[in-house]
Design goal:
With about 290 residues, the protein is α/β, with parallel strands linked by helices. It has one domain: Rossmann fold (3-Layer(aba) Sandwich). It is about 60% helix and about 10% strand. It contains eleven helices and six strands. A six-stranded mixed beta sheet has the order 4-3-2-5-1-6, with helices on both faces. Helix 2 packs across helix 6 and helix 3 packs antiparallel against helix 5. The protein is globular, with a radius of gyration of 21 Å.
């Protein structure tokens, strides 16, 4: 009761946030007709152009980072080590900031490309509320969506956008079934746009037996694994987009921390992840 009275006076804070996204929704909608006229090859070429734009924006910083990391290695074990580490971290933060700015700039076109790819491959079109949901997730916020509002479809938007940075992105689900089906349903979207997408599954202690990449041309012997080609766990982590459960990502993280050789590590630099059923994974089952 008090909450309703408070909102009646001050306004719903969630609605204020959503209102801020509406101009971007209109911009994406204005692009729909233009993108519908593009060929599949043109949409795929846009992905390459987006990636090149992100890489170009951080080219100088990557050179600075390489030099700073060399300096850090050179001073290991000396009094200068701490200062060298601070410089490496500073450059990494600056790179992420610049990348984030570029991704925000190309968001309307990227979302429009995903919407068009989805229409052509799955027959599903992202509605305005789903576009807003994608923006909310991209900004690092929690998006509450009811059953039937298309969470699986919404996730394709921020996953595609953030995968353009080339660092790899993860979608964390509560169970293996949701991971596998999620990739099988949305894999065609990523494939049309030229991104690789994979999934990691529980395989009773043998990670390589539970890793697959989406490949529409692969002749699966088991109908449950349609369009999923077996690959190594290391290859799965090199995909642009990776689906998996919190348990699999967690155990792989532990394995990496117990690895004796650098080449035995699986996970690269952790960058962007979407957590499905976040309340269940981070609270109920934490």
């Amino acid at each position: 009761m008090l909450k309703k009275i408070y909102y009646a006076i001050t306004g719903d804070p969630n609605e204020k946030v959503i209102k801020g996204y509406r101009p971007l929704v209109e911009e994406i909608n204005d692009l729909e007709e233009e993108f519908a006229a593009k060929s599949n090859d043109e949409l795929r070429a846009m992905t390459a152009a987006f990636k090149a734009q992100v890489q170009e924006s951080t080219a100088e910083l990557r050179e600075e980072l390489a030099a700073a990391e060399e300096e850090y290695i050179a001073v290991l074990g000396t009094d200068e080590q701490r200062f060298a580490r601070v410089e490496v971290d500073r450059i990494k933060k600056e790179m992420l900031k610049v990348e984030g700015q570029v991704l925000d700039e190309i968001l309307p076109e990227a979302f429009a490309a995903v919407r068009e790819a989805s229409k052509r491959t799955t027959g599903l079109r992202h509605y305005d509320v789903q576009l807003i949901g994608g923006m909310v997730l991209h900004s690092g916020r929690i998006a509450e969506m009811k059953t039937g509002e298309g969470k699986t479809l919404v996730a394709t938007l921020p996953l595609y956008l953030n995968a353009l940075a080339g660092r790899g992105v993860h979608l964390v689900t509560p169970n293996d079934y949701l991971s596998k089906v999620g990739l099988q349903l949305m894999g065609p979207v990523y494939h049309l746009l030229g991104l690789s997408a994979a999934v990691i599954q529980n395989s009773a202690g043998s990670p390589d037996k539970g890793s697959f990449v989406y490949d529409p041309d692969f002749p699966a012997a088991d109908d449950r694994f349609l369009a999923l080609r077996p690959i190594s766990r290391a290859e799965a982590y090199r995909a642009d987009i990776l689906y998996g459960t919190n348990n699999e990502f967690g155990f792989d993280y532990l394995r990496d921390n117990m690895a004796f050789r650098l080449e035995d590590k699986l996970q690269g630099e952790l960058s962007f992840a979407i957590v499905d059923e976040v309340d269940s994974i981070l609270i109920d089952e934490a």
